[in-house]
């Protein structure tokens, strides 16, 4: 089923996984997927490795998740560092394997490279990839958007204009980059609606794994850590378990406020770990979502 059709009927809760670097970690990943399936996610997605090493695994895993769980799935696809032909072949394979949804992305610059340099024979931006998918496939298409502008963006207005173009080209819903201050999300949604973006905007939330990890990821994505959260995390620099609990409390409060204010959906960047997301969802018991079983 197209995820846009799910979003037309209900607000969604979804989980994002990444293909492990080593094949022998796949069973552990599927155990996590299995354990999180009890929360009856609206869909699960599998990221596409920027460096290339795990790209084939994305296809394999997303097909397995579709076959082995009750959840709808979405494959991530980036066009960086690949020719248009290579990207097209991935889409043909996904389509042939019965995958109905993709999130079309550009991808980050490779490690050690500050700015993105497109391949001569490749797509330059997500907008081009979305146009290609729309013209050649009947897949459901999602795209990324940025409540705090993308790190390479000229400015917030231009970044929003590109988000609007992604929708004009065929993106049926948007998922935000992670953020830790809901005011950034609400301000972005207001600006997006004013700019004529009328598709669902799903909020991307990433629970904390450790102080150092969240600081690194937030800085890479250009996401602020609010002073209050930052101060609490500072107290757990050497205690990942405590940092995780701080994160659970923060993300629970974020998700509750978003849900209460009518968000279209919440997408959890699960990082292949179930503990935090399980705790958050149990804390929330979201009304209106099919929800976790009582136990
Ligand atoms: C929900 C989500 C999932 C993600 N999944 C993955 C994943 O699986 N694998 C991975 O490697 N990365 C992933 N990323 C990260 C993503 O690849 C990076 O954020 C990347 O730097 C930008 O991707 P994009 O699709 O937003 O690019 P684009 O939309 O192409 O934007 C990139 C930059 O170019 C500008 N821009 C956009 N369109 C144009 C245009 N037509 N002309 C000129 N400038 C333009 C934008 O303002 C922005 O600064 C994900 C991000 C999100 C939010």
Describe the structure.
The chain is α/β, with parallel strands linked by helices. It has one domain: Alpha-Beta Barrel (TIM Barrel). It has 11 helices and 8 strands. Strands 1-2-3-4-5-6-7-8 form an 8-stranded parallel β-barrel, surrounded by 6 helices. α5 runs parallel beside α6 and α10 packs parallel to α11. The longest helix has 21 residues. The protein is globular and about 50 Å long. The structure holds flavin-adenine dinucleotide. The site of flavin-adenine dinucleotide (FAD) has 23 residues, from β3, β4, α5 and α6.
Question: Could you list some keywords that capture this structure?
Answer:
eight-stranded parallel barrel, 295 residues, 45% helix, binds flavin-adenine dinucleotide, single chain, TIM Barrel, alpha/beta, 8 strands
């Amino acid at each position: 089923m197209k995820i846009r059709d799910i979003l037309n009927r209900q607000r969604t809760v979804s989980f994002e996984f990444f293909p492990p670097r080593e094949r022998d970690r796949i069973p552990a990943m599927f155990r996590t997927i299995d354990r999180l399936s009890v929360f009856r996610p609206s869909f699960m997605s599998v990221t596409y490795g920027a460096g290339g090493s795990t790209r084939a695994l994305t296809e394999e895993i997303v097909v397995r998740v579709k076959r082995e769980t009750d959840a709808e799935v979405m494959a991530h696809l980036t066009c960086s560092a690949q020719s248009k032909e290579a990207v097209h072949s991935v889409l043909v394979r996904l389509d042939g394997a019965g995958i109905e949804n993709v999130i079309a992305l550009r991808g980050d610059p490779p490690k050690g490279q500050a700015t993105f340099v497109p391949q001569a024979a490749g797509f330059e931006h997500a907008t081009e990839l979305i146009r290609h998918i729309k013209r050649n496939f009947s897949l459901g298409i999602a795209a990324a958007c940025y409540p705090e502008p993308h790190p390479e963006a000229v400015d917030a207005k231009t970044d929003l204009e590109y988000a609007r173009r992604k929708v004009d080209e065929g993106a049926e819903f948007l998922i935000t980059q992670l953020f830790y201050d809901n005011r950034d999300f609400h301000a972005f949604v207001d600006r997006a609606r004013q700019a004529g973006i009328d598709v669902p905007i799903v909020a991307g939330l990433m629970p904390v794994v450790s102080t150092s990890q969240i600081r690194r990821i937030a800085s890479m994505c250009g996401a602020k850590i609010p002073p209050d959260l930052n101060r609490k995390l500072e107290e757990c620099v050497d205690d990942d378990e405590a940092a995780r609990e701080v994160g659970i409390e923060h993300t629970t409060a974020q998700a509750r406020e978003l849900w209460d204010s009518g968000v279209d959906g919440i997408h959890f960047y699960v990082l292949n770990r179930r503990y935090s997301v399980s705790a958050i969802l149990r804390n929330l018991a979201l009304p209106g979502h099919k929800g976790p079983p009582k136990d």
